[in-house]
DNA sequence: TGATACGAACACAAAACGTGTTCGATGGGC
DNA sequence: GCCCATCGAACACGTTTTGTGTTCGTATCA
């Protein structure tokens, strides 16, 4: 409720949040503490302030959004992977749900974030290989030359790509340049590219270019995907699944 | 209590454990479930059986042993690291305690196990770089050519080495060949080698050789270390701390 | 086939958690 | 520099979760 209120206005007083939620101000303050620690908002005296200034929404906030839809996407992607495959699992909250759908599968997985590795740790039949590299603080993604070297020395059957934007015109795009570099290497190292993203990202273009639409084999998105975008993608030879 | 009982006898009936602990058999069974899942013992009908057959005790069991002593060792090693240093943090339960003592330090750390990475994740001022590689299931250590490549491309001020055995005659030894290979690379990449181990390991020699005593700069162990071993190490030019 | 061990299901107590209140400390605006 | 609003520590309370013991039907081994 707090995050929802904060999405509408940029600054919401503690008193208003207390009234809105029907609980005491003390409870609000405690919740604001947690949310601030997670990097979901900024606290000022008397109120919570939206911290979404730049491009990228912080991971813990994204992880709290549209959980059910992401779970469906994750299950759909998991269903496209065959047992025994070698898979690069990109970073992001949607691909994280893919990882969670892989618990009892037999695969070799190279996750591009520690979150992915954590999710796959209990999966006994999954062989985990980590790429290494600099660990970006919030996202816990691997970036840098070490990561790219690792991807360059291996070949994979499939890369499950999470992206910030995908259009026929601009291809796959990401917010961050160094992350895009890693994604690029992952695409180059993989025989099949599955991009997974919610419908909102199908009309969006982010800053850093990853690859052209021609390099994408499959797009998995939700049912709210705009029909014209889906048509354009299909005409461009991309297999599109709306789940 | 269960694990202690199992260290004395190799097979302890559920009824005996119930009597020993003063709780019901059902509770014992539930605890045995957990311990078996963690790989600390094996269950047979009517009893728990010690599973320590081979060389290496499983990680969750070791992590439960001598926690206080390890914590002291960890704090001592942490005190030897200067702010701003680049450090390789070896795998193992003792070095894990070193990681926990590094929470508010400013360092660049390359952990050789996921456990180490997890422990350092909340440390905001620690720059984490992971080596990558194959993830060994139980220990969660990085091994293989990828790990060695990463170590070969970097130089470090210090390596905090956890080892299974260390004697003047046989040098530093480990249980596993591929792990030893990684440790070897870590030693080669570091200007200073700090070995941390409890006193029992000072008279032990394991299977796989890591390096000679001459390559070790500092040994941190506990006060129960045998005096003659300590003397020998000092005569060999090693700085020994018993904490 | 019988005695023993097992685990699912329920009941119960203890601990942990979330919440609200009070109250002294702190901070920004006039 | 004062004052009022906000803050967080401390305590109290109800709820939830966890751990434990009991019962009882089922599975297992001699």
UniProtKB/TrEMBL annotation, chains A, B:
Pfam families, alphabetized: DeoRC (PF00455), HTH_DeoR (PF08220)
InterPro entries: Carb_Metab_HTH_regulators (IPR050313), DeoR-like_C (IPR014036), DeoR_HTH (IPR001034), NagB/RpiA_transferase-like (IPR037171), WH-like_DNA-bd_sf (IPR036388), WH_DNA-bd_sf (IPR036390)
Record GO terms (molecular function): DNA-binding transcription factor activity
Domain HTH deoR-type: 1-50
Keywords, in A-Z order: Transcription, Transcription regulation
Protein name: Transcriptional regulator, DeoR family
